[in-house]
Structure formats: C-alpha cells, structure tokens
Amino acid sequence: METCILGIESSCDDTSAAVICNGKLYSNIINTQSIHFKYGGVVPELASRAHQQNIVLVVKEALEQAGKNIDQISAIAFTQGPGLLGSLLVGSSFAKGLAIAQDIPIIGINHLQGHIFAPFLREKDEDEFIPNFPFLCLLVSGGHTQLIIVKSYTTFEIIGSTIDDAAGEAFDKCAKVMNLGYPGGPLIDKYAKLGNPNKFQFSKPKIAGLNFSFSGLKTSFLYFLRDQIKDNKNFISDNLSDLCASIQSQIVDILLDKLLKAVKQTGIKNIAISGGVSANSCLRNKLTDLGLNNSWNLYIPKIKYTTDNAAMITLVAYHYFMEGRTDSLDIVSIAKLSSFS
Known about the structure:
- By secondary structure, this protein is of the alpha/beta class.
- The protein folds into 2 domains: about 5-120 and about 305-320, ATPase, nucleotide binding domain (Nucleotidyltransferase, domain 5, 2-Layer Sandwich), CATH 3.30.420; about 135-300, ATPase, nucleotide binding domain (Nucleotidyltransferase, domain 5, 2-Layer Sandwich).
- The chain has helices at about 45-65, 85-100, 110-115, 165-175, 185-190, 215-230, 235-240, 240-265, 280-295, 310-320; strands spanning about 5-10, 15-20, 25-30, 75-80, 105-110, 135-140, 145-150, 155-160, 270-275, 295-300.
- It has a 5-stranded mixed beta sheet, with helices on both faces.
- Strand 1 (about 5-10) and strand 2 form a beta hairpin.
- The longest helix is centred in the C-terminal third of the chain and has 27 residues, at about 240-265.
- It is globular, with a radius of gyration of 21 Å.
C-alpha cells in the first residue's frame, strides 16, 4: 500500500510544498520571495503576507507534479519551528485546515531536523538511501551552527553549538561590510573562487570543547578593513577576491577543526553536513578531502536541498508516520523551537 505525505515549509521566506510516497520524493515546489533582496534581509511582515498569497498555488502544484490528488495523501506535515512566527503560522494553519477537511493526521516537524536528513532525499526514479546510524552531522545555516549525533530519525544529541553568531551570519555580515548585497554567503563563495585564501589572516576564536564562535573573527575582519581603508579607500574593490577567499577559508577551517575534534571524541566516522552553508564550495571540497584522508563515510546533500525546502520536512514526517507518530490539532508553532524530541 502506498503511503504519501504532503509537507509544507514556511519557516522564513520560501513557501514550499512537497510530496513523498513510500520514502521517495515525487515533487518539491519552492516559491522564493524576491521582495526581501532590496531590504538586505528578510522582513517578517512581508514574508508572512507573501506566504498567504503563495501557499494555495504551491500546494496545488506540488500535488499536480506528484500526480496525486488530496484523497491519496495519508498525512500532512508542516514546519513547527524554529522560524519567523508569522510565517510558521501560515503553514501550520493551512495544514490544520486541510487535515480537518480531509480527516487525516498532521505532523509538526522541527525545521533543523529536516535539514539534518536533507542528504538522504531521493527522487522517485532513484534508489532509496538509508543513513548508517549513528552519524555525526555538522548543521550550518544562517541562524544555526551545531554538531549533532544522530542516533535515529527521531533521536538526537547536540554536542556542540555556537555561542554567538552562526557561520551563515558570519558570511552575511562580512559580505555586508564589503557591500556585496544579500544573501552574502553565496556572493563570497563566488568571488572567492578567483582569490588567494592565504592572502589575509584574521583573529581566530579559541573556544574550548566543541562549541563554535564567529563574532571575534567577524570583528577582526571589520577592524582589518577599517584600518586598510584609511590608507586606500579602494582597498575592498582592489582586493575583493582575496578578501572573500581568505574569510571564507577561515570560517570553513573553524567548522572543520571542530568536526575533526568531534570525530576523535565520539569515534563516529559517518559524517553529514546540512543547512544553507553546506552549499559552500570551499566547505564541500575541504570536507571531501578530509573524509578521504580519514576514511569517513560522507553524506553531502545535493545543492538544491541545502536551502529551505518542504522535501526535507516531508521526509522526516514520512518516517514519523511510519513509526505511528502524529500530532493533535492543538500543536502550536514555536519561533524558537530548539528541542529535537
């Protein structure tokens, strides 16, 4: 018997819906809100309004592309949090209304948990890929940087987190002081391809254990630019590629130094990366080399699944549903949801 889950992701500025049947992805529709680019960041009120305008058509298109009608859906999943509360409420309210109308269960999913399993998404014409548990996940996004031991689809242990900025925030803030625009991470990655990653050095954090810190590196970068611009007002434009390559390399080195330390402490050699920053070419290349040198089993998501998408939410919900785990209609959206339970 075919089990099909319809999933909705609306945690930030992407309205997305996906259908997964028997563990395989049949559709994944994403509507990205371009209105935020001119503001240099996401405007929460505009985001929630855009979700309201987009969600019906996005869900309709996801069902049509999957070749399914709503009567063939076994359950409806949605992102419970973390995220922008107004945006989350649009997705959860729509999911609840549709679930009531169809008399089918709902499943609220942690957005971060979705990111963790993005490397294992497989489309309907691909072989299903089951992770080897436990695996160690380096979750890096605009708002989160964590090291997590993943023991099953529903069991997690966070062993390291950032104490200040996330890696994605460091990329975006460094890009902003160079006037590169938003989002900054992909732009730094673009210019870094032509630069020398060893040209400039900045102050690296000295944080014990497995926690991360990026605020000191960001401040060092800012002060360095301030001092250089005093002597050459065109310093940034004259050295843009080298600046991007240098700051990118050092952010990536901080991430991988902690990952290597976590592997040594846990003995786990099944390694995954996920989140928006996992699309960074420097991170992917250095991790691949590190994995080869240390005989790791690497799980790296396809680029199209690194950003926010409903496919990753729906995949986790499918496994929840198969375990018999669903939620009641009184489940609430939580902007700062942190628990993986």
